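Re: [help] complex structure
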Amino acid sequence: MNSVQLSDSNLISLYVAGDENAFELLLNRHKNKVFTTILLIVKDTYTAEDLLQDTFIKAIHTIKSGRYNEEGKFSSWICRIAHNLAIDFFRKEKRSPVITLEDGSNILNVLSFAEESAESVQIKEETHARLRELIQQLPPAQKEVLIMRHYADMSFQEIAEATGVSINTALGRMRYALINLRKKLSTDNNVYDKNIYPG
Amino acid sequence: MIKTFTQDDLVLYVYNELPFAAKAKLEQALTQDYELADHCSELLLAKVDLDKALHSPSPKVVHNILSYSRNLSL
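Output below.
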């Protein structure tokens, strides 16, 4: 089956008809974005993996029982389920989430690093960890819109409705989130340069 | 006359939500307005950076989800 030529909608139709390979393609296509959406909210790898399973189990039941609504994008739908589950978890816990140490993460999970050197993998992982840290430092309203738009793949209109603000406010928050992120990354890089070339 | 675009238009453009006609006009404006192009490139670079923060779940979790699906018949 050529996944490049099949849309999410095609894959869902095949899955409804009993093709489990279609579901595997769908899962592999969306798992990283869904997982990152959850991880940025709960900040714990193991909890995020549990919630990822819950998310897809909900999706499996909805699709297999014929209750999946074809309107809208699959990616937005699945990420909305994930986002809601993560927020529910966060509220139920009523505490600051546990932060998993970076050295506790499973490097084998990052498939794209499989053929790179250990040093290269470490540098990349440190950069990515720093990026996730910077996202966490954004003001909550900006972070929320950023996660919903970039990782959960919701449209600005959907975000505006979900968060009870105007679309202009959602756009403004996203713009500030992106600009803040760039500024923070730029500051990081300047500090790094000074360390290399002191004085 | 070239339409004046807002910063919000740039965000919509970067996330591919700008209507087709407006997109074409914005791309034309980007070739002539260096300040607008500079703002746009910053937003695009931030978007690229965000992709680097993507994380993968463990293969075991993926396997569990696939097994659940295969074993479920409704």
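The radius of gyration of chain A is 19 Å.
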